[in-house]
Amino acid sequence: MQTVHVHTTSHDYPIHIGAGILCDFSLFAPYIGKKIAIVTNETVAPLYLNQLTDLFKKNNIQYFTIILPDGEQYKNHDSLNQIYDALLTHHADRKTTLIALGGGVIGDMVGFAAATYQRGVPFIQIPTTLLSQVDSSVGGKTAINHPLGKNMIGAFYQPKLVMTDLNTLQTLPEKEFSAGMAEVIKYGLLGDLDFFVWIEQNIHEIMHQQPEKLTKIIAHCCQMKANIVAQDETEQGIRAHLNLGHTFGHAIETEMGYGNWLHGEAVAAGTVLACALSEQLGCLKNGDTARVAALFRAANLPDKPPKFPFNQWIAHMRHDKKVENGIMRFITLQKLGCAQISEISDMKLLDFLRNHNFSRF
Amino acid sequence: MQTVHVHTTSHDYPIHIGAGILCDFSLFAPYIGKKIAIVTNETVAPLYLNQLTDLFKKNNIQYFTIILPDGEQYKNHDSLNQIYDALLTHHADRKTTLIALGGGVIGDMVGFAAATYQRGVPFIQIPTTLLSQVDSSVGGKTAINHPLGKNMIGAFYQPKLVMTDLNTLQTLPEKEFSAGMAEVIKYGLLGDLDFFVWIEQNIHEIMHQQPEKLTKIIAHCCQMKANIVAQDETEQGIRAHLNLGHTFGHAIETEMGYGNWLHGEAVAAGTVLACALSEQLGCLKNGDTARVAALFRAANLPDKPPKFPFNQWIAHMRHDKKVENGIMRFITLQKLGCAQISEISDMKLLDFLRNHNFSRF
């Protein structure tokens, strides 16, 4: 087991990473009170809920469970209210601990419920997807969707503990494991060339879920994100680098309809576009983009975007939250392993998208 | 004009207190961006909204308004969602400033909307009732009600600025002014005997809204609350003293049906009960309770609770959030001007309520 310690302005918390750690009550013990609410979804419940409830039963911890439907389309006020209702019905008080057992959707929603129930209760995350293990464990971003926008309602709220059990990845669909790898590769690109090279060299073992390799990539990404977030907890500056590939990625997700391309797949294609844009800006060397695209392919990820009209690209990207005062800002690469913010005019972007015909990569 | 500076863990902010300050754009200027959303209710809008929008128009500040129905029964998710919808429809971004123009209900709801819209946007309070001026301006408590409990969904979130214009009190119903005075008197009792004595000596001028006296009481209460909250921002310890009279008060409100007794009226009667309990504990001197009751009467407030059965008292107080692990905790007085936490058994409480027959005061 490896542990990453995350420092935040409100408190510090550990991320424990290892195979089978969900059975180790001593890791939970310092962070739970007398009563626990476990929130999970219909997909994860049959796989891991019993394991957890058995653990609490054996240790005489009072608990109750809340099982929500699975999917991004349920990351809304109705599901949030199901959590509130259950908490109130079970007389949960300010010391009741909420546990989020599931992927990013469960983590985001339960985190927001914990942030807002009685103005804040303790919260433990058990992320069960690679994406949530590397991305949602650090940063304190919680949210639900609103009919008029994704993640529009939320709060910055930190967990007391994150338990990342590698065994939960064994039941994760391969497509989703790959989607998580898009974010892992992104971390190398935006801030650590050595890590990027290490992923290139070990991609085969990683894709076969070799436990030591998995522990290393998850711990490394969490540590990198923790360092970035520590400098910028409420996302005013450098934290924007984490959005590498996400502006193009969001446009792809919007155009294709959410759920048709996984977030990680869109981020992979979006990151290749961001690399190509960086090459055009004269930052990346010729061939760097092709090298990045090759690694995404090795992780069974798309290395180019679907084709759709220029004006759709512009329209979708304009809706991105990062647009401020009409200026379009992109995260690009100064060189492999080093991100920057670039301001790009509509005309330049149009040229870029046209020149590449979406098919160069 | 007087200014109280409030220090919080996230940032510091000023509370400006004075007559007519709502017309002074220079006080707003440092705290607003290019776009403002003003949220108010149907009662306050016809009185003060134009004054504010004229000010912003004259200074070329882009704004839009959201007018909600008036009343505690609208402090719910539907109203909150009206705010979210308007913000999204008007493309409010993370730099849009929310202004709460109204009493405690508007302040609590708009504060919660600001805490959660895009994970937090800037927020200015313009409290228009005495209660919200002395009580909601400090502490960062925001919330909405849930069908299963009052203030169950909320967050701790601080404003950037509080503008307390005494002129807004001129349109406040007398009954509500008195209700605000219950909290003012409470501050003297729980932490400052000199202030309590000063209120006794000046109660006539205060009730006639003499501006200098009003400025003093509002500034003094805000400063006292700021000192208490600074020691205990998330309500783990000493901040509980602010709940003097509130456990009995909540029981009265619940029994009578919310809205039949104003919160401040219930707190006045509840505070007299807390004093009598303190006398029985041997803390207050004989006659202290009568002295407190006399001041509440001078402020046109009830000095005794309505009569209702013992078991109802117990049942209502058990539902109070301050009950932890079945122990009933009350804020009592060590002496006038000094609060403490007392743990009281059900039997002792029953004796107390029976002995006083609710009519001794």
From TrEMBL, chains A, B:
Catalytic function, reaction form: 7-phospho-2-dehydro-3-deoxy-D-arabino-heptonate = 3-dehydroquinate + phosphate
Keyword terms of this UniProt record: Amino-acid biosynthesis, Aromatic amino acid biosynthesis, Cobalt, Cytoplasm, Lyase, Metal-binding, NAD, Nucleotide-binding, Zinc
Top-level taxon in the UniProt lineage: Bacteria
Top-tier EC class: lyase
CDD domains cross-referenced by the UniProt entry: DHQS (cd08195)
Xref: Gene3D superfamilies: 3.40.50.1970, Dehydroquinate synthase-like - alpha domain
Entry annotated with the keyword Iron-sulfur: no
Name of this chain's protein: 3-dehydroquinate synthase
Organism: Simonsiella muelleri ATCC 29453
Biological classification of the source: Bacteria, Pseudomonadati, Pseudomonadota, Betaproteobacteria, Neisseriales
